[in-house]
Amino acid sequence: MGSLYSDIETWLHRVPAGAKLLVMAIAGTLLFTTSSVGWLGAAGTACLALLLSLRRAAWGAKRWLVSALIAALLVAAFHVLMGQPLLAYATTMRLMSASVLGAALTLTTRPGDLVDVLERCLRPLARFGFEPERIALQMALMLRFVEHFFTRWQLLADAYRLRTGRAGGLRLIAPLSIQMLQTSRRVADALWARLGH
């Protein structure tokens, strides 16, 4: 499966995965505790500065962030049409700030390190009859499939542009869906062979 993890070493690669997850969780929560134009603008500026500090490694998330920006602008346009420009601004800043934080985490953290952190965080649930390893595996698979989705999308878009000289756009949805379903089937078969259920 493809990954958005960047092998280009940055200062954020040296920060432990648990610390990055904790900061991301706190920052993501704080984004929703205020609607202040100033605070949200400052948060967006700080997130952009964080991404730019990764230098060349940040290019790996360019297409991903463009997609998030398009989605944020569509949501903002809807709120503006409904006569809520301040809500449009707040929604756009929250979505883009959270997306940039997620991109920075994904670019600089190995998937295996994230799984280790998730297992440690979920371990107390074992006292209540849950299986932390199984929950961590499910969350890790979800994160990996999001990465894989964007990687496959980028590969298909590049291949289509090379063949036709044009962007693929909505034409890529069908082949992308088929490839994702095939990948899901292969992962399911591998898990069944490994776990037996």
Q: Can you give a write-up of this model?
A:
It is a single chain. The protein has about 200 residues and is mainly alpha-helical. It has two domains: about 10-110, no CATH class; about 125-195, no CATH class. Helices cover about 75% and strands about 0% of the residues. The protein contains seven helices and no strands. It has helices at about 15-30, 35-50, 60-80, 85-110, 110-120, 130-165, 175-195. Helix 1 (about 15-30) runs antiparallel to helix 4 (about 85-110). The longest helix has about 35 residues, at about 130-165. The radius of gyration is 19 Å and the shape is globular. The mean pLDDT is about 85.
SSE order and pairing:
Layout: H1 17-31, H2 37-52, H3 62-81, H4 85-108, H5 111-122, H6 132-164, H7 173-195
Quick structural summary:
It is found in: Membrane. This protein is an all-alpha fold and 197 residues long.
